[in-house]
């Protein structure tokens, strides 16, 4: 029989995937589920990117690439990062199969057993799992009482971060709240990180999906260049979830260390996908804007619909998620939502935010209306 590692026992399966699987099962049985549980844009990958992928296949780009990525893509990524004020060089980039792998490599590269990692709750599910796999002890700061914003919680963050802290994880725009952190909040993070010599992961995967607030890259702030690992990817901005393409940017020294894990695990990201990634970065602004505008319209629609039914939501300014207040037992509420109303959403508990449910509004306006109607007619709102 297998003797499973203590390490693998530290983590639970992804709660978001569990709900999506349940929704898929019910759909297979013929149920009409409005699935608002998934973290992926509902748009096709823009045509120019698909064509670039096909062209790359036809041109025979099917072998391994250099481990950290093809030079054209690393250069395009560095150029893109320079656009948000990060003094980036192609040698400071590792191209990964998805942002998730970039995060995984980062935790493994920085964390020893017993190191303290600070998370801002509600936090995306996989940070906790990745931190625990690396042996971290977690400390958490709850943003829920502050409308999911970081700026009003800076005092609590200051009480939590100390010289013993190894790593702080920041995700703006946020999954699951959609919150975009203010410049003052990020400067507060910088001040604490510098004071206590803490490394920071800045997960900016929803960077392109912001509405009225401006996105700010943490690594562009004074004092952050040599302590930030910037994570980004193509899944959300370019609707490329299944292509699996992302990256990390940090110092060359960091890339040297993390690159060992990268080369011994995934070897490299997929060759023709990397070539499509160059096209995505260089020629897709129009599609990105169209998708962003659609997300904004849907968010506004949902806010109006919830408002009509007396549900007060702390509305985020980015990503395509919203946390709505539900029963204290959010797990039971989400079960009722799927069983009785055929609407799938993710319990807030999965993000360490009990009493909420996460709604992904990467769905058509018609389906969003349908979801709210069903929740209302089943007395769930
Ligand atoms: N970071 C956050 C906050 C996410 O929500 C996701 C995807 O759900 C990722 C990273 C990883 O995405 P991918 O691995 O598809 O690039």
Automatic annotation (TrEMBL):
The keyword Transferase appears for this protein: yes
Source species, domain of life: Archaea
Cofactor: pyridoxal 5'-phosphate
Segments forming domain Aminotransferase class I/classII large: 32-375
InterPro entries, per database record: Aminotransferase_I/II_large, AspAT/PAT-like, NHTrfase_class1_PyrdxlP-BS, PyrdxlP-dep_Trfase, PyrdxlP-dep_Trfase_major, PyrdxlP-dep_Trfase_small
Annotated signal peptide: none
Subunit structure: Homodimer.
Enzyme class, UniProt record, top EC level: transferase
UniProt-listed GO biological process terms: amino acid metabolic process
Keyword Transferase among record annotations: yes
GO molecular function: pyridoxal phosphate binding; transaminase activity
PROSITE patterns, per the entry: AA_TRANSFER_CLASS_1 (PS00105)
Organism: Halorubrum saccharovorum
Protein name: Aminotransferase
Keywords: Aminotransferase, Pyridoxal phosphate, Transferase
Enzyme Commission (EC) number: 2.6.1.-
Family recorded in the similarity comment: Belongs to the class-I pyridoxal-phosphate-dependent aminotransferase family.
């Amino acid at each position: 029989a297998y003797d499973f590692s203590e390490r693998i026992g530290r983590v639970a399966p992804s709660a978001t995937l569990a709900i999506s699987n349940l929704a898929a099962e019910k759909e297979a049985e013929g149920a009409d589920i409005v699935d608002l549980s998934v973290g992926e844009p509902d748009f096709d990958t823009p045509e120019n990117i698909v064509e670039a992928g096909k062209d790359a296949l036809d041109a025979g780009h099917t072998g391994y690439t250099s481990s950290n990525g093809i030079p054209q893509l690393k250069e395009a990524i560095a150029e893109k990062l320079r656009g948000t004020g990060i003094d980036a060089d192609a040698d400071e980039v590792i191209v990964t199969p998805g942002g998730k792998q970039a995060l995984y490599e980062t935790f493994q590269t920085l964390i020893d057993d017993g190191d303290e990692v600070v998370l801002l709750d509600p936090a995306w599910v996989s940070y906790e799992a990745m931190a625990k796999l690396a042996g971290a002890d977690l400390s958490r700061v709850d943003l829920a009482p502050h409308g999911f914003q970081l700026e009003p919680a800076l005092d609590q963050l200051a009480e939590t971060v100390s010289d013993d802290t190894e790593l702080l994880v920041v995700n703006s725009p946020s999954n699951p709240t959609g919150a975009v952190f203010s410049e003052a909040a990020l400067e507060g993070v910088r001040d604490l990180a510098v004071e206590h010599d803490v490394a920071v992961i800045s997960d900016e995967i929803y960077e392109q999906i912001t509405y009225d607030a401006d996105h700010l890259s943490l690594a562009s702030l004074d004092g952050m260049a040599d302590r930030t690992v910037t994570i980004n990817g193509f899944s959300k901005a370019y609707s490329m979830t299944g292509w699996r393409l992302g990256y990390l940017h940090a110092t060359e020294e960091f890339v040297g260390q993390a690159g060992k894990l990268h080369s011994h695990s995934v070897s490299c990201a997929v060759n023709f996908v990397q070539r499509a990634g160059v096209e995505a970065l260089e020629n897709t602004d129009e599609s990105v804007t169209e998708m962003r505008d659609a997300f904004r319209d849907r968010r506004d629609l949902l806010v109006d619909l919830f408002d009509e039914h007396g549900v007060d939501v702390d509305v985020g300014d980015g990503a395509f998620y919203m946390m709505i207040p539900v029963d204290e037992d959010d797990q039971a509420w989400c079960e009722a939502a799927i069983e009785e109303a055929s609407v799938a959403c993710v319990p807030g508990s999965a993000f360490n935010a009990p009493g909420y449910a996460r709604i992904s509004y990467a769905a058509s306006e018609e389906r969003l209306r349908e979801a709210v109607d069903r929740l209302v007619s089943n007395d769930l709102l």
